[in-house]
Amino acid sequence: MADATATGPTTSGGIVELRVHGVSGAGADQVLDRPHVHQVAGDRSGGFYRPRPGYPDSTGTDGVTLEAYRWSDLPSGTAVRTLSLVFLLPFMLCNVALWMRPAETASKRGFMALCRVLALTLTALYVLSIVGVALDLIAWRCMDTPSCLAGRSGLSWLGGRPPGLRLGVLALVPVAAIGLVWWLGARPGHSFDAFRTPATTTSKHQLSAVGQWDGEPLVGRLRSVHVAAAFATLSGSLLAARASQHRSWVMVVLLAATGAVLLACLVLVTVVASIDHTDPSPRVDGVCRGLRTIAAGVTMLVIVHVVISPAPWPQGGSLPGYGAIVAWLFVSQTVLVVMLAALVIWRRGGGQRRSPLRALGAPVFMTISAGLAVAFSAELVYRVADLLDRRGTTADGLATSPPLAYKWAIFGFFLAVVTALLVAGLVTRMTRGQRRRAARAIVAADFPHAPAQAADRLRRVEQAVARARFTENLEPLSVVYACLAALGLATSVLGLLQLPPGEVTQRYVGVPESMVNFLIGSGSYVIAAILLGLVVGGIFAYRTAQFRRYVGVLWDLGTFWPRAAHPFAPPCYAERAVPELTKRISYLVDQGQGVLLAGHSHGSVLLAATVLQLPTRITDRVALLTYGSPLGRLYSRLFPAYADDPALREIGERVGWRWINLWRDTDPIGGWMFAAHRPGEAVTLTGPVATVDRRLTDPQDVVPAPSDSVPPPILGHWPCESQEAFTEAERDLIARLRPAPIARD
């Protein structure tokens, strides 16, 4: 792509304003606020655009050259995003949790080990859910029940066959499911080869490592380990069923091999530090690939043994050992989450601002990830059981009833969701007065002379400010939900004791068993509704710009961080975006330009990681303008080891404190970096940090302008490029970037 710096209006010694959009997915013409743009660098996934020369208003404030970086297509295409948002969401949340570790580095290794073991349990759960459908419900139960096979020609061809043959044939279904996630994990997204950066470290803060991350070696190793664990899970399920009435030296060898594979997977993700090396390591890579091959081979041998073994099989009931394996997996996840929370609470350190619940994002996100994975798996098994059981209205028939662990999981998930919603409603009610009083004071200070006819408009502004302040309540609410979800997982141990939820609650709580069964069925429909909502939300997110602002936050937050915990999570777009921005900014400065970086919302996070990568000779000619930025309000809480106060201060120092941050009280996502600077509030900071934040009054007025018939809109999190305050901030930073005139005698 030809570069406009060689042929366009930019001249040596000029200023280029490089704008980076947020999660809205706006087009380059919207980011630049110019109707005619053309691409000057990059490609269709991530490209740099400028106004076409020759058209009116093709330059920016004070004649600067405008440029926009559009990265919204980097995460993936629309269809992949929508499906991934549903099926890969637990994997993505698990991966994000790894980057939420406390600022203290002493617990880093143990923290990573726990997160990666939990990631392995999610892969095992994925396989067990397919095993539950294909082997337990269909091969073992339905094909052994004439009433279930009646009218189902697609299944009856295996009816009456030996159980080993049925299990062996249907075992190909989970094998195909493993192959699917293996292919999805290995499927290349966008080519990032041209965007690798040197391994030189320019900042001591770890946010700079996000863009320098070459994740392919680590992701490849983790992918091999997870595929090996998936095959071992399938082998263990088949061997547990076969071992119920048959033991031989072949069984002992296969069980030992399966156990050795699982143990090797645990050792690789917890003990072997070289798995994290970003450079190719033939020894470690070979071990991981070899383990994957061995695991696949053992699974094939197990399937053959199950098919040809002449020993009799037990009759009736569920697949032997399957319910116990599922229950123990749920219990293991609960124990690991508790250990992770204990480690975080014990080792959490500084760097976390304005948060009473410091550094708890990791166990919360990991619990939510495990809870969603359990709920999705339980819903799959429960719904298939319900479809197979044509005699009843729920999946409680003797022939095709799902394992008790899944029933407890659905029951616990439903109670956690309902309780969390009730607590959220209670918190909303209890904090409404406080938030409204604070909003009323803010609005009164902003519009002290508002006329009486603006009373309704003032109430609307107060409501917008009060709603935006509710963001601070999401953190304790998420902790409450995580605790409830963990308790729901813990109840799965009752499945090991063969205690149905209805019987337990009726005996010890007094709730009728029929009511509990109704709640389990309702919980199943709630999970189905959540899945459907995610699909519909994913579709609407890329058809409606306003809706995408809310759904896209989750997606762009999750895919910003490299895959360091779960290899089946969606790929990280920062591996290209940050190095690409670094290369472009360095090129412009080397051409003699000053660069004003302007980032909205998540675009400011990309620019923060970029600034921490730039060498001093480049940052001396760089200024930073952020607006609607979540760095101080959200990222410093969620990622204390990567976006703490020292990292923000280093960003300011690197650009010579040529940094202005614009924020609004009506914004539920963005906020100030160092100080609020509200009218009437005491100044608590001095020095250059006190000059960074500038508060924008939103709306600009509560009465219509003389030339208009409606008052200015409440913008909230929307960009502010067309506002006068944005132009003033541009002029301020442009003046600081331009060299002072040389005095003449």
From TrEMBL:
The keyword Cytoplasm does not apply. Keywords: Membrane, Transmembrane, Transmembrane helix. The chain crosses the membrane at residues 79-99, 111-135, 165-186, 225-243, 249-273, 294-313, 325-347, 359-385, 405-427, 479-499, 519-542. Signal peptide: none annotated. SUPFAM superfamilies: alpha/beta-Hydrolases. It comes from the Bacteria. The keyword Phosphoprotein does not apply. This is Integral membrane protein. It comes from Micromonospora violae. The lineage of its organism: Bacteria, Bacillati, Actinomycetota, Actinomycetes, Micromonosporales.
